[in-house]
Every structure is written in C-alpha cells, then in structure tokens.
Amino acid sequence: MLDNLQLLFVWAPIINLQVILDGIFVGAVFALSAYGLALVWGVMNIKNLAQGDFVIMGGYLSLSLYYLGTSLGIPLEYILPMILLIVVTIMFVFGWGIYILIIRRIIDQDMFVSLLATFGLSLLLQQVINLFYGPEVQTIDMKMGALDAFDNMVSIPYSKVLSLILAAIITLCVVIFMKRSRMGQAIRATAQDPRAARVLGIDTDRVYAFTFAFNAALCGAAGVLVSIIWVIQPFYGITYSVRSFAIVTAAGLGNLPGVISAAFGIGLFEKYTGMILGTAYEVAAPVAILLIVLIIRQVSMKRNRQPVR
User: Fold this and answer.
1) What is the pTM for the complete model shown?
2) Residue 232's beta-bridge partner residues?
3) How distant, in Å, are the alpha carbons of 12, 54, 64, 145, 214 from that of 239?
4) Are 224 and 139 in contact (CB under 8 A)?
C-alpha cells in the first residue's frame, strides 16, 4: 500500500492521469445505469435489484450481434452503432414485458415485495445467461488500438474514448427527451404526484411501463459500452447493481447532474482504491461509499428529529 502511494505521488505522479482517465471512462457507464435506476425508484418506488443484470444482458446481446455482424462481413465501424440501436430496442421491449409480467403486480406492494421480486428476477437472468453463454469471461475486441503518451505510462484506448462519446450522446438525448417530450413531462409529473397526474388525464400505468422499459434500454446501452471497454460474465450483474444504488443514494432521485457527478466520483474513487489497495478491493469501494452515505444521512435525520429546546 505504501509503495503504491509513493508510486502515485512521489515516483511517478503522471500515473494519476491514467487513473483519472479510467475513472472518467467507467463513470460515464455507471451514470447510464444509475439514472435508469433513479427513474424507476423515483417514479414507481421500485428498488430494482436486477439493474446490473440488465446491464450484463445488454452486454451479451451486443456480443452476439458483434459475432453475427463480423460473420456477415459488415465493416467494424458500422457494427457498433447498429449494435447499440438494436440492443436498446430489444431491451426496451424486454423491459416493457417484464413490467407487464412482474412489476405491475408489485407496484402497490411494500418495499420488501419489490426487493424479493427483483432479486428473483436477477437470479433468473443470471442462470439463463449462464445457460446460453457459459460462465467464461468475454469481451468485444474492437481492434481500435490505443494512444500511448508520457513514455507509455499513460495509455488511452480508442474504444474507451468512443464509449465516452457515445455515453455523452445518449445522456444528451435523455436530457432532451425528459425536458421536451410529452412522455418525459408525464414521467416527471407522475414522479411528483401520481394521483394529481391521473386527475390531469395522464395514464400512469402506461407511464410506469414506459419508465421501466426506458430504464432497461439505458441498461442495455450501458451493457454495450461495458462489453467493449471491460469484460462481461453472467454473475457480474451484482457489482453494477451495487454501483447504481451507491450513485443514486449519493445523488438523489431524478437528479441527472447529481447522478453524473456521483458516477464520476465513484468511478475515480474505485480506480484509486484499486490502484492503492489492489484490484480485488475495487468492487468494495462503491459498497463503502454506500455505507458512508447511509450513515451520514441517518445521523442527519436523527439530528433533524431532535426537538428544539
């Protein structure tokens, strides 16, 4: 640990640039899945424990489409945009179907029912993906090379730069949709007061279905980006679920700028933790942040409840 700290801040401080860039790249992916969770949580009060498994499902769908595209001889520069559009569409339809089959029946139940139902969905998705693809770790090799700088101490893969650009484009589209479209306005109105939204003529059941499907589509997009900059494995979904919960808990519901800031912050914290303590501790970093945020909020709530003397 001390050697790693000396390496970062004394012997080779330029490595900090590599860590910061890696944190930004991963934070952009975290933001997509976390904002989808924030929507579902804020609009429907559903804590989706299968959030990370939606991301992994999107990654495996993109992997299958990648192999199909390369077998058909489609140029590599056209494959990724096609994969992204197809996966987002498939995941949207899948999310709508899950809402009709499961979520609609538990939306008015207490929190534990939603947790149990989505946890069961998570286990089901893990086993189905493992059955079809096997337990091996897989990834998409975009064959894009990397930019090496500072005597090869900093390496920036072009695939990660591409994923950051795509994440920014998707985020911009989400912002425009939520602010300008009628469905986006209906989602925000339903999140504020479902009863008032129904009085104003908004079909809240349709809004709920669209929100959950929209969340699945965002997870699918995140899964595509994960498959080209990281690795995917059927049982890795829980790590993305924990990260999403940590980001939403830190940022709050429906706060897209806060979600983006928290995602980048957690991405940086995770990468620095891995650099200082070892990669085995990277996954523990979001859990630590989640616990810290919960403790701080619990303490502040107790202080606010104390009677004024």
Assistant:
1) 0.92
2) 138
3) 30, 12, 22, 28, 21
4) no
